[in-house]
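[scheduler] slot 2 assigned
[scheduler] job type: sequence-to-structure, two independent chains
[scheduler] chain ordering preserved from manifest
[runner] begin chain α
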Amino acid sequence: MVSAVKADEQCAALLFPDRWLPTFVRPRIFNCVRKTYLLPSHHGLGEGKKTEHFCWYTGDTREGSSGAPVFNKYWEVVALHHKAVPKTNVNGEVIDINGRTMSEERYKQFPELVDYAANEGIRASRLLQRLQQATFDKPEHEAKRDRLLKLWQSREARSLRRRLQFVSNEAE
């Protein structure tokens, strides 16, 4: 695992001038960028593991990281960070950093003592699928969703995704 401090907001504006974050659904190396407690954001690199609705990856995340985008090495969004996944024994009991089982009460009281196996993110493809299938009570909400989806598929958005792919390939 590698951690590196993320550049400031100016750098992010250079990387994503239109604030578009491309999505990608195949399992690869992921980067999770988060902003927690006014600390600088960090990139947690780890090997992604594919499941039906979630992807698992390694990295150092803290409470409050939920909702942070998870990027692959090409800075394409693959998921939104959901939670840390604790290690468990064959009986499904949570394991602490000393290899001992933890009661549910102790697990909730001392989360810093948990031995975590991975992080879990909700796959971007599943979020997009749910958004496309969603029904709304108010027509204006459905219209807003449709405009966002149309904008995402626009020529400008596709062009930005291609430029980011090219820049990422050049950096390798």
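[runner] end chain α
[runner] begin chain β
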Amino acid sequence: MSKLKLRYESKRLVLVLIGAVLFALNIDSFVRSANLFPGGFAGVALLVQEVFGKFLGISVPYSVLAYSLNVVPIIIGFLYIGRKFTVYSIVMIVVSGFFTDLFSGITFLSLTSDTILCAVFGGIVNAVAISLCLFADSSSGGTDFIAIYVSERTGKSAWNYILAGNCVVLVAAGILFGWDKALYSIIFQYASTQTLNVVYKRYSKTTLLIVTDKHAEIYDVIRRLTNHGATVFEGTGEFSQQSHKMVYTVVSSDESGRLEREIRGVDPNAFINVLQSKEIVGKFFKRQND
């Protein structure tokens, strides 16, 4: 393995480990302090753990439930997403489960008893922890596997659909443990989902419309930086009555900022219109998760 590759893999591992510990700290601080139920399989694990403890008098470690629930998503990851991606995700699942049990019961982790603060800041911290894993080409497991699989197969952002699916967990939590906690958990999940959409943009798409006289050079930049194609249109500026080329391309949103800067370097006079793409139908190059 080359030094560059080793450095990259080490960076991935460090990001995953930090994300895992932060994820566990969030559960044992904000989440448990307010008895919230976060989204995904972590919420399911906490709900099942609470049911066993309250109704059956059985104490089940969080890690046991989290590991069991993630078996099927891990198989999906290996088959359809990527092997290294899934291996790093397993590291996240194992480490976060271990530290969640380890930190459980440590009183100083309870930063506040205000439920609304726990819901808002817990949701934000949850999204940051998940984002660290996603930046490392990994995930926090569970519904992340499903969201990424759906996003790559359909071209649609799946995080809002995951939020809708989490409502099933919240309904069960509301029936069993009171609707106030379930409603506060919705705030937690909404804060987490929206923060994730802002912080991590790989699975959202951006359309660039570039009016330029250097279309060939600009396409070379697009191809080199993103490996995406482009379509060139003939156009005439109505004000100046001068002919121009318009380059049309769609890229992942996390690529658009750097691409705009590079285009400005090639043609400082280029007119660039940046649009958020709701959905992509057809062939679109996707970077491999591994």
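[runner] end chain β
[qc] chain β: The beta strands are 205-212, 231-236, 243-252, 271-277.
[scheduler] slot 2 released
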